[in-house]
Amino acid sequence: MSPRAFLAILTVVILAGMAPAQPPRETAEQRDRRMKWFREARFGMFIHWGLYSVPAGEWKGQRVGGLGEWIMHQARIPVAEYETLVHQFNPVRFDAREWVRIAKDAGMKYIVITSKHHDGFCLFDAKNSAYDIMATPFRRDVLKELAAECKRAGIKLCFYHSIMDWHHPDYLPRRPWDPRPGVPAQFDRYVAYMKEQLRQLVRDYGPLGILWFDGEWEGTWTHELGKDLYAYVRSLQPDIIVNNRVDKGRRGMQGMNAPEFAGDYGTPEQEVPAEGLPGVDWESCMTMNDTWGFRKDDHNWKSSADLIRMLVDCASKGGNLLLNVGPTAEGLIPAPSVERLADIGRWMQVNKESIYGTTASRIGKPAWGRSTTKGNRIYLHVFDWPKDRVLRIEGLKAAPRSARLLAAPRAKLPMQQDGSAWLIAVPSVAPDQVDSVIAMDLAPVGR
To answer: What pLDDT shows up at residue 25?
Structure first.
């Protein structure tokens, strides 16, 4: 038996015998400090990358419907066949510094990348598995390289780690097309395997910003297991943030759970809640096209304008946007994604103060756009520039003192009151056709 295999077995035995972990106690103030960077960031990059980028939506010459990263499930591929992709995954054009540069230039403050997706393949040098990046021709730990670049650039590194695992022999339930008769399964042994990987990720790649779980919906994963896993992760790094998919309380794609379930924030998927999720932290995860993992036939790209307004919409409701890219098997972020992120970055260069560290709108959802808040300043995000050059603001709780365009901050915009509303005289041409932002300073309430 190899030393690596012996260590893996020993770790499983030790972890399996452990009592359930207890989460560290924290006051409301301590929780606020732990969540502070997340609430201020507002914008992050999601990266779905793994073996599924090799078939890229096709299997044995046939187009397979559905999401790119779900091809093993959609094409009903047995483990023994899917494993052959390990020998084809060779992302020679991967450049961790370039990926981080693209994210940072777009204005993103954190990166969440798939350390392991549902297919079970590990995108890091997993000490308890040979089904990992080191078994490929590439033989470089891409997460280690990404961790170094994120640290250099001041980007928070976070990992998506799937609870569901179609590959591991102890995970249950197995896929009906690949029952693997004669191969015994023991689910608690799988849980110990997963915990050991999480321990390695926190220890060797951290400190991490977030552990982002998924695949919790199958019946083998219980509320008790979710609470225990949340506590275990927090015991490894007390200040880490854990999403709500660690437990069973998620209400469909809307993503938020009742307070009795574990998890620090809600995870709406492919939607921005109409009214946000008041009173809780949340983050909408969204694709730029139709799939998370790379599909070579998916060209249904959202426009840069729609993505900028999506970011603003999230911030205006007190949430974050986690915007996905699906790199190719060669290690490149697709050009349409890079182009859109560059467009967002150019908008952020002018308007970033209206996103970072802001809270939800104080004036609802005005007909002309959205609004964000920072102290006694509100930011008016004008999507529809008024043709009559008069922007009407309703619902202010305090009188405005001044208003300036972020694109021309030295020039005050004239204002006057009209009953309960305030009117701002604006230039005839919008500084930005997608979203022109006006910073309006208000008198402190009570003065």
So the answer is: 82
